[in-house]
Amino acid sequence: VQLQASGGGLVQAGESLRLSCVASGSIYRINVMGWYRQTPGKGRDLVAIIDTAGRTTYIDSAKDRFTISRGRTKNTIDLQMSGLKPEDAAVYYCHLAQRTESYWGQGTQVTVSS
To answer: Of 5, 29, 82, 104, which is most buried with the most CB atoms under 10 A?
Structure first.
């Protein structure tokens, strides 16, 4: 399984950004995909996840600003981030979990200037 993430970049506070992740390989019908983020010296924290039934979970600080969705194919997810804040700046990682397997994509940098 491979995860290809895209969409990071530099934005100003208050602006929006959309991250996308495409999973390829042996993807099971039931899985959970999502986004995590990491800042230097800290662990990787959950931002939002979505299962194949469309159920979502968000970190509290993202609930009113971020939306995670499945793309046209269920192996694609998007994270629409609005009202970005400097504290949202991090390396964002796409993740896929299925059965006992866990996969990470390469990180994509999100930088938010104040």
So the answer is: 5
Q: For 55-76, what is each residue's pLDDT tens digit?
A: 999 999 999 999 999 988 779 9
3-state class (DSSP) for residue 52: coil
* 3-state SS assignment for residue 39: coil
d(CA 58, CA 44): 14
Cβ within 8 Å of residue 93, ≥6 positions away: 5, 35, 36, 37, 38, 44, 104, 105, 106, 107, 108
Q: Give me the phi and psi of 55, to 5 degrees please.
A: -80, 140
CB proximity list for 15: less than 8 A, separation 6 or greater: 84, 112
Give the chain's residues under pLDDT 70. none
Structure tokens at 20: 């996308």
